[in-house]
What does this fold into?
Amino acid sequence: MNAQSIGYLNKFFVGIQGKTETRKGCVVKIKAYGNLEKPVPPVVPVMDIVKRVGLEGLDECLKRGDPDARSCGKFAPGKRE
It folds into this structure.
């Protein structure tokens, strides 16, 4: 796995900005970010996540926010010919 693919996997690991603190989370399961329909910012407002996936989705994002994990996304290399 090269540095470019590692960067791709980690692009979904973002800060989730709440009212008083910022916590790390994974937004790959949010359709707009996971499908790359919307650019993934380094920090996402918590209300943006709640509007898109609700409180349960927010909880899932925060559960997958382990900074020691290699990635929070899934590796999907292009087709080989």
